[in-house]
Amino acid sequence: MDLNLLRSLDALLQENSVTRAAERLGTSPAAVSRTLARLRRAIGDPLLVRAGQEMVPTPRALELREEVGVLLRGCDNVLRPGPGFDAVRLRRTFTVQAADLLLVGLAGTLTERIHAEAPQVDVVFLPEAMEGGAGLRQGSVDVELGVLGHLDPEIRTRRLTRMPLVGIARSGHPLFDGRIDARRFAAADHIGISRLGKRLGPIDRALAERGLERRTAVVVPSHTSAMMLARETDLVALSLADWLPDTVTAMGLRTFPIPLDLAPLDLGMAWHPRNSADPGHRWFREHLAAVVLGPSGPGTPSPRPAD
């Protein structure tokens, strides 16, 4: 039934008068009279009948009066904007998909920030998936953080920062005995980092342009395992510039600029549009972005598009 018919019926049953119902609805008595005729046909009952100079409800109208009021209040609640957001009262778990190197540097700070405002909010971190965006589409991931690619066209994104890659090796590595140029860099044995076991990437293409080739002696699925392996061997790995400097030093590692013309990595976050207007989700995204871009975060913010 047309919601306007319900509102008219409610006004008629509350006022027991076509004229007063019209005033309540902000319309003319003639329009309400036509609506009453429609309602009588639809319900199969006269609803209001003459009793001298007044109109009185039929037994069916009395049965409907409370029921119609409840229906309208329910409709109004559905159409009314949600209550004001209060982080303190938020009870929710957010799931973030990110590379291990990012979450190691962000998880602690992010948890402290959100618990300061929302002590009942939990965060689950998942490793990077094989197919970017699937978890967002399916609802198993709230935010994907990192180098974004292969996303569904409807996915919303926000660029956060750009970070250059650096090489990383144990502090006593022979590479540090002299200037690290492209030839010496290529001559070292390398650790590849790939969830799919890929051995070649942008570094190999950049070396090939110089007529050079490197040996990827080992391929591991995560940056953490690459750093652990580099600490124990003369293999060279990759990391993000100025990321986790205290951890790098504590592990006996040392970073160095890669002597190649490599584009920095664009880091961003992605989420499904079903969550764009959700105040709790927006609150969480803002905290996540603030941690990435904060004093201990990885870099300078990129221009921000509208959510």
Tell me what you see in this structure.
With 307 residues, the protein is α/β, with parallel strands linked by helices. It folds into 3 domains: 3-79, Arc Repressor Mutant, subunit A, CATH 1.10.10; 88-161 and 266-293, D-Maltodextrin-Binding Protein, domain 2; 165-257, 3-Layer(aba) Sandwich (D-Maltodextrin-Binding Protein, domain 2). Helices cover 41% and strands 21% of the residues. It has helices at 3-15, 18-25, 29-43, 59-79, 100-117, 134-138, 182-187, 202-209, 223-232, 245-250, 279-293, and strands at 48-51, 54-57, 92-98, 121-126, 143-146, 156-163, 165-170, 189-193, 215-220, 237-240, 253-257, 265-271. The strands form 4 sheets. The chain has a 5-stranded mixed sheet, covered by helices on one side. Strands 10-7-11 form a 3-stranded antiparallel sheet. Strands 1-2 form a two-stranded antiparallel ribbon. Helix 8 links the parallel strand 8 and strand 9. Helix 2 packs across helix 3. It is rod-shaped. The two termini are 36 Å apart.
